[in-house]
UniProtKB/TrEMBL annotation:
Keywords of the record: Glycoprotein, Hydrolase, Protease, Secreted, Serine protease, Signal
Inhibitor I9 domain boundaries: 3-79
Catalytic residues (UniProt): D111 (charge relay system), H184 (charge relay system), S514 (charge relay system)
Phylogenetic classification of the source organism: Eukaryota, Viridiplantae, Streptophyta, Embryophyta, Tracheophyta
Name used for this protein in its record: Subtilisin-like protease
Length: 743
């Protein structure tokens, strides 16, 4: 047996079960199996239950009256300070409300749990818990009701799906409770809404005051991820509770590939959350720079990619031939001897075919003892490579990027003197090692440096568009800081996460879209506290349309993976600018009916739509044709079929331009004024017309609509063009990225 999610049509509940739908669920389950185990029942994130079924029982269940669909559960993975200053939150006191409104916003985080003793969850100065909060502090191993306070107001854990698949939680490795034994959940929670902590650092690196994006917001932790992963039956149960608990924002730094929305657990739960006014922020994934590598692409989810900060942790490698190379490291400990040491490439000190990767047990101790070892990045964790070198008697490690990572450097708190260097630097070192009979090297550590330019740049690991499920919706939505982020950490594990790392820290520096997601979750909470009546779509629109795509010198944001300007497939609308987002001027709002029309435009069946929407909804044939292009999204993804294989090829009919129309509605959330459109599309292959070219708003909440028409010449397959459409009243700029692609 394996776990299946069973979606039930609430409107088909038999009269005899109307007062007790859970009994109907049990009756339906017993009708296909007397012995099948029910794990959870769901009422908010979806209507239905999860159970352990054989494939035959699942087929039989799907044929039962009132059953919409039965899907096997999905295993999800985690998408594994200076930031408030970098984002400009210090410039505008209004962005950091000290008023009670900031205290009334609750950020729910689905992750590995929480370390309640972290100073990031101190509740000094917080008033009573908001009256609308319905959650609780769930008791479990090493976690009591007193573990929560006025800052960390709730904590729950969900393990039934995990245990049904992998057996009981191993309590020698992790707590069967909300307690975080991994560190990831504490890091994401404190990034979103951690209290201000003076004197924070990791071994002296990144020293300063650490605070979350919304330091006055409350935190609710939902532990859904365990050593063996995060299972969708548990994730749904947590979303179900979070919705009932009345969180305002849901932050989810996890993903499990992509699938149609009616099969996507997170998308289904997020739809229900959106209907309750809860903004759901998810990480885009760490599968970049590969195209179409995104997770969490539903249009009612805010999808966040990762960029860098203007802070770095430089180190330097000096070789015996006099050449020097820059790297990054968070190593803190005994320095290397004040001399050059013997230097060896791991593949020359191993009999394994993958000896260059420094995997456990592959190094020959007598060939690495007291030497600096060059290891290639990939396959096993970066910090584990250093631990392998140390265990074999090596003095230090240099980890060289491969083509997959290029020039992107991620700092780690290594267990021995170690640094990461770029692919190009690594190749030069390999050339030196192969050409010198007595190669030597050393590593110097330089601490923390700020003011690094250019910044931000898009992280190479950040997953990229286009959107493989709905090419007509541009994803990611935006980027936020996700590289070398300092935030709270678990006291149960060292900063590397390795079992041999006995060090314990209050704060750690890690990277991933897991880190960028809670930045946006916290910024959404800030905006929610200032604009409590805004919908999730309005908040996302404010963040997107005020994002920036160029540096202060006017040059475009760079992509570290290519060394060239990044595109909307990399950065979405751009990099978050929360100061501007509080006063965006206009927003693109989207309601539940708009999303239902979007599902109709996808030509989903009634059962598929009802699985997502949890209601008996029928697309209106009399309403005419539905179009994905009419979803009121703050960006434009123009996906075109390419009839030609080369410029100038094809018949006359194939050379005719394709005309595509998009309808959009803007809502005034600022002062009255007239906004005029400007179009920036550096190509003659596409002509863009916006009608009307100006919109006048005389009052707040007034709505005005426009049509954007794209007349595109035929282009070869895999051609991409990018631009922007902006509306401005002279004070506000409401920007939308444009991505045009021929497939």
């Amino acid at each position: 047996r394996s776990t299946y999610i069973v979606h039930v049509a609430k409107w088909e509940t038999p009269a005899s079960y109307e007062e007790d739908h859970v009994s109907w669920f049990h009756s339906s389950l017993r009708s296909v199996s007397e012995s099948a185990e029910m794990l959870y029942t769901y009422s908010s994130a979806l209507h239905g239950f999860s159970a352990r079924l054989t494939p035959e029982e699942a087929i039989a269940m799907e044929a039962r009256p009132g059953i919409l669909s039965v899907h096997p559960e999905t295993r999800y993975e985690l998408h594994t300070t200076r930031t408030p200053l970098f984002l400009g939150l210090d410039r505008n006191a209004a962005m950091l409300p000290e008023s009670e409104s900031g205290n009334e916003v609750i950020v729910g985080v689905l992750d590995t749990g929480v370390w309640p003793e972290s100073p990031s969850f101190a509740d000094a100065g917080f008033g009573p818990v908001p009256a609308y909060w319905k959650g609780e502090c769930e008791v479990g191993t090493n976690f009591s009701a007193s573990s929560c306070n006025k800052k960390l107001i709730g904590a729950r854990f969900f393990a039934r799906g995990y245990e049904a698949t992998l057996g009981p939680v191993d309590e020698s490795k992790e707590s069967r409770s909300p307690r975080d034994n991994d560190g990831h959940g504490t890091h994401t929670s404190s990034t979103a809404a951690g209290s201000a902590v003076a004197g924070a650092s990791l071994f002296g690196y990144a020293a300063g005051t650490a605070r979350g994006m919304a330091p006055r917001a409350r935190v609710a932790a939902y532990k859904v991820c365990w050593v063996g992963g995060c299972f969708s039956s548990d994730i749904l149960a947590a979303m179900d509770k979070a919705i009932d608990d009345n969180v305002n924002v849901l932050s989810m730094s996890l993903g499990g590939g992509v699938s149609d929305y009616y099969r996507d657990t997170v998308a289904i739960g997020a739809f229900a959350a959106m209907e309750k006014g809860i903004l759901v922020s998810c990480s885009a994934g760490n599968a970049g720079p590969t195209a179409s590598s995104l997770s969490n692409v539903a249009p009612w989810i805010t999808t966040v990619g990762a960029g860098t900060l203007d802070r770095d942790f430089p180190s330097y490698v000096s070789l015996g031939n006099g050449k020097n190379f820059s790297g990054v490291s968070l190593y803190k400990g005994n320095s290397l001897p004040d001399k050059l040491l013997p230097f060896v490439y791991a593949s020359a000190a191993s009999n394994a075919t993958s000896g260059n990767l420094c995997m456990t047990g592959t190094l020959i101790p007598e060939k690495v003892k007291d030497k600096i070892v060059l290891c290639d990045r990939g396959v096993n964790p970066r910090v584990q490579k250093g631990a392998v070198v140390r265990a074999a008697g090596g003095a230090g490690m240099i980890m060289a990027n491969t083509a997959a990572n290029g020039a992107e450097l991620v700092a780690d708190a290594h267990l021995l003197p170690a640094t990461a260097v770029s692919e190009a630097s690594g190749q030069e070192m390999k050339n030196y090692l192969s050409s010198d009979s007595n190669p030597t090297a050393t590593i110097l550590f330089e601490g923390t440096k700020v003011g690094i330019e250019p910044s931000p740049v898009v992280a190479a690991f950040s997953s990229r568009g286009p959107n493989s499920i709905t090419p007509g919706i541009l994803k990611p939505d935006l980027i936020a800081p996700g590289v070398n982020i300092l935030a709270g950490w678990s006291g149960a594990v060292g900063p590397t996460g390795l079992s041999e790392d006995s060090r314990r820290v209050n704060f750690n520096i890690i990277s991933g879209t897991s880190m960028s997601c809670p930045h946006v979750s916290g910024l959404a909470a800030l905006i929610k506290s200032a604009r409590p009546n805004w919908s999730p779509a309005a908040i996302r629109s404010a963040l997107m349309t005020t994002s920036y795509t160029v540096y202060k010198n006017g040059e475009p944001i760079q992509d570290v993976a290519t060394g060239k300007p990044s595109t909307p497939f990399d950065h979405g609308a751009g990099h978050a600018d929360p100061v501007s987002a509080l006063d965006p001027g206009l927003v693109y709002d989207i309601g539940t009916d708009d999303y239902l029309n979007f599902l109709c435009a996808l030509n989903y069946t009634g059962s598929q739509i009802n699985t997502v929407a949890r209601r008996n909804y029928t697309c209106d044939a009399a309403a005419g044709t539905y179009s994905v292009n009419d979803l009121n999204y703050p960006s434009f993804a123009v996906a075109l079929d390419s009839p030609v294989t080369a410029p100038g090829g094809g018949s006359d009919a194939e050379k005719k331009p394709t005309v595509v129309k998009y309808r959009r509605t803007l809502t005034n959330v600022g002062i009255p004024g007239t906004y005029r459109v400007s179009i920036n599309l550096p190509t003659t292959a596409v002509k863009v017309t916006v009608e009307p070219p100006s919109l006048t708003f005389s009052q707040t909440d007034e709505k005005q609509s426009y049509t954007a028409t794209f007349a595109a010449e035929p282009m070869p397959s895999n051609t991409n063009l990018f631009g922007r459409i902006e509306w401005s009243d002279g004070k506000h700029v409401v920007g939308s990225p444009v991505a045009i692609s021929w497939t």
